[in-house]
Each structure stands twice: as C-alpha cells, then as structure tokens.
Amino acid sequence: MFERVFDEEERGQVGIGTLIVFIAMVLVAAIAAGVLINTAGFLQTQAEATGEESTSQVSDRLQVVSQSGNVTDQNVTDLDIVVAQAPGASNIDLEEVSVEIIGDNGQESFTIGDEDNATIDMFTGGEDDVVLVDNSDRAEIRIELGTTEGDSVEYDVLNAGDDATITFTTAAGATTTTEIRVPTTLTEDQDSVRL
C-alpha cells in the first residue's frame, strides 16, 4: 500500500515542489482577490454617484405655485411666476436655473442669472439670497417680454388668446413645465391677469 522511499533526497524534493506550487497558488489567488476587491470598490463608488445624480435629476426640481402677467396696452409684457422647491428637493440656486419659452411667438432659452430682464424676488431669506433652501421658501421669477436691448429676453409680448409653454431646468437637470394661457379678452384698465 505505501511505497518505501529509500533515498531521503527524493522525499524532500517532492515536499518542496508541492510547497512551491501551493505558495504560487496562494499568491495568484491573493492577486486575483485584490483585483476583484478594487474593481468592486470602483463599481460601488460609481454606482453611488450615478444613483445620487439620478435622484437629483428627478427630485431637485421647482414647483410652480402661481403664475400671472402684467398687462400693458392689452398685451402681457411681464410674466410673474412664483416657485418653490418640489417635495424632496435639495437646495436650488435660482440663478443657475435655465428657462425655455416656447409658444406662438417662437422660442427663447436663457439662464436666469445671465439675463438682465429676468429677476428673482425672494419672499424668504436675505436680500441677496437666491437659493431655495426649505419647502416653505418662495420666490417670484419675473420675466420681462418683448425687449431686445443687450442680453435680454427677446420673446415677444403675449397677446390675448396666446399660449406658451415654460420649462424650468435646475442645475441638477430636473425639469418643470408649466402652461401659460392668456385670456381671450384683455381690457384697457386691467393691470394684471392670472395665467
């Protein structure tokens, strides 16, 4: 059953060879495990970042509370849109919000902070504060229409019966769309109208 080894040198060489093969296998397994652990860590970090960005794109959006327009010569010349944070949204810097107006008078896109004729009036916080921090924060975004001076909104004034769609896109990429419908009748003595 067992073979007798008469030469002691042969017996030692078989043991050392097995040990070398065993150590080599352990080293290869350790290197492979290290590569797998590094790859898994990288993938986890990337998945977390992707999840956070996806959540921001969905939840970090504005909510339109009310919308009205100022009437001059039976035309809507200014849009006053009151906005707040949508439920679950993080802080939103209103100067970084981009606006796109599409309607009967064409299309206009701009960023609120870069536009001379788009202003922000915060109802809460400090005078220079333009960031929505809490769900109770409200801000009025005023967009002056029909002006062509310098960097300004070139979208024409709205007439009675005109329609327009306004899309707000936050810095995170979340969008909010609202419809503007001007009443079919605007009178001389009317200062403002609900849109």
Could you characterize the architecture of this molecule?
- It is a single chain.
- Strand 4 and strand 5 form a beta hairpin.
- The radius of gyration is 33 Å and the shape is rod-shaped.
- The chain is α+β, with helices and mostly antiparallel strands and 195 residues long.
- The protein is 27% helix and 34% strand.
- The mean pLDDT is 83.
- The strands form three sheets. The protein has a five-stranded antiparallel β-sheet with strand order 6-8-2-1-11, with no helix packed on it. Strands 5-4-9-10 form a four-stranded antiparallel β-sheet, with no helix packed on it. A two-stranded antiparallel sheet has the order 3-7.
- The chain is built from one helix and eleven strands, in the order αβββββββββββ.
- The protein folds into two domains: 1-59; 62-194, Sandwich (Immunoglobulin-like).
Structural class: alpha+beta
Helix content: 25-40%
> What order do the helices and strands follow?
HEEEEEEEEEEE
Roughly how many Å is the radius of gyration? 33 Å
CATH class of the largest domain: Mainly Beta
Taken from the alpha-carbon principal axes, the silhouette is rod-shaped
- Sheet-strand content, in percent, reads 25-35%
**Strands, total number:** 11
Q: How many domains make up the 3D coordinates?
A: 2
Instruction: Look at the structure and give the mean pLDDT.
Output: 83
> Could you say what the CATH architecture of the largest domain is?
Sandwich
Poorly predicted residue ranges? none
Distance between the termini: 99 Å
Number of helices, counting only DSSP H or I runs of 4 residues or more:
1
Question: What is the fold-level CATH name, i.e. the topology of the largest domain?
Answer: Immunoglobulin-like
